[in-house]
TrEMBL record:
Cited SUPFAM superfamilies: Galactose-binding domain-like
Name of protein: Glycosyl hydrolase family 98 putative carbohydrate-binding module domain-containing protein
Residues annotated as signal peptide: 1-24
Statement: the UniProt record of this protein carries the keyword Signal: yes
Keywords: Signal
Signal listed as a keyword: yes
Source organism superkingdom: Bacteria
Domain Glycosyl hydrolase family 98 putative carbohydrate-binding module: 218-365
Annotated InterPro entries: Galactose-bd-like_sf, Glyco_hyd_98_carb-bd, NPCBM_sf
Lineage of the organism: Bacteria, Bacillati, Actinomycetota, Actinomycetes, Propionibacteriales
One Pfam family named in its UniProt record: NPCBM
Native source organism of the sequence: Nocardioides cavernae
Length: 367
């Protein structure tokens, strides 16, 4: 019994006097773990891809760098396909003396992500998608149109702005044609420092012809159009081609000779006894000028005279009496904002055979 007690006491004393003997293994493991964490913290791995988008069968090139580790390192190229939660080793590479590494492979199926790992240190994932990359948005705008009123076919200036990704690109100026329900190019300009200025012209008259700027799109760039603005475009219209709203049954029209000159787009009046003959046209308050050459037709009797008048909304804009053979009077009259245009002729003798002609009678309008 005494021997047992002595043996136990010796063991207890041994443990008490030498605690390092029991903790040495634990200390070594902790130190090793701390070293691993420090090593992992020092190693940094980066990874880039040659392109984020590929087509089926295209190559993708991965390029990376390892820093914080000495010597050539073994790099695991990890891959995760779309829909998968786990990473698999795609390839193993070694860095060069500067810590760089590369990997290339064909892509034949869907989207995937890659990362590169050295030990426990891994790069951020990079994604490669299969298909066509979405186009970048663009924008164009019209800032000014000068002048704001033009004649059909007359050049005018359009200026505006464009997004930075359109530098050096062509912007089209377009006009809307209600007849074809389509936008058509009427001018163009090159974008410089976010701005553009170009010349354009419209061949069809209209009180408010819609205009817009447009970029047709390009590789990687989406199509865009500006908010529409408008311009007033005036043109000359022969009265012969417009339907009259009222007449005295003495209306005539076509090609006539007046004082030796042929006027192919003429209107005129002929007479019943001594009554005034007339014809009226609707201007819709869209016209500003009336032009014609007035006289009697060259087939009229030489001894007969007539009187003529041009009336707009019951206001006489022009009148003359004693118009006879061999005489002609050019007219260019302001009819701005007029609604109803009336041409009158009155014979100065009963039963006159002279016809009063308004040679190439026309109005300047933006309908």
């Amino acid at each position: 019994m005494r021997r047992v007690i002595i043996t136990v006491l010796l063991v207890i004393c041994s443990v008490t006097l030498h605690p390092s003997a029991t903790s040495a293994g634990t200390g070594d493991a902790a130190a090793s773990h701390r070293g691993s964490l420090l090593a992992k913290a020092r190693v940094r791995v980066t990874l880039t891809t040659s392109t984020p988008w590929v087509k089926k069968g295209d190559d993708v090139s991965l390029k990376g760098q390892v820093k914080g580790a000495r010597g050539r390192q073994v790099v695991r190229i990890m891959q995760r396909t779309k829909g998968s939660r786990s990473w698999v080793v795609e390839a193993t590479k070694k860095t060069n003396r500067k810590g760089a590494f590369r990997h290339r492979e064909d892509i034949n199926t869907g989207d995937r992500s890659y990362k590169a790992c050295v030990g426990g240190a891994c790069s951020k994932p990079v994604t490669v998608r299969m298909g066509t990359p979405p186009k970048k948005s663009t924008s164009v705008a019209i800032a000014a149109v000068s002048p704001t009123t033009v004649e059909a076919g007359q050049a005018f200036t359009v200026s505006g702005s464009a997004s930075s990704n359109l530098e050096g690109r062509t912007v089209q100026v377009e006009a809307y044609d209600s007849g074809t329900d389509a936008w058509s190019p009427i001018g163009s300009a090159i974008v410089r420092s976010g701005a553009w200025t170009g010349s354009a012209s419209v061949s069809t008259a209209g009180s408010a012809v819609p205009l817009r700027a447009s970029f047709a799109g390009g590789i990687g760039l989406a199509r865009s159009s500006s908010t529409a603005t408008s311009i007033a475009v005036y043109g000359w219209f022969h009265l012969r081609n417009r339907e009259s709203v009222s007449d005295s049954n003495g209306l005539t029209g076509g090609s006539y000779n007046v004082n030796g000159v042929t006027y192919p787009q003429s209107v005129g009046v002929w007479f019943f006894s001594s009554r005034t003959s007339y014809v009226e046209y609707d201007l819709s308050r869209s016209c500003t000028r009336f032009a014609a050459t007035v006289g009697v037709a060259d087939y009229s009797p030489s001894d007969e005279k007539v009187a003529g008048a041009l009336i707009v909304d019951n206001v006489t804009k022009w009148s003359r009496t004693g118009i006879g053979l061999g005489q002609s009077y050019p007219l260019d009259i302001d009819i701005t904002a007029g609604l109803r245009l009336r041409i009158e002729g009155t014979p100065e003798v009963y039963g006159s055979d002279a016809d009063l002609i308004f040679g190439d009678a026309r109005v300047y309008c933006a309908p």
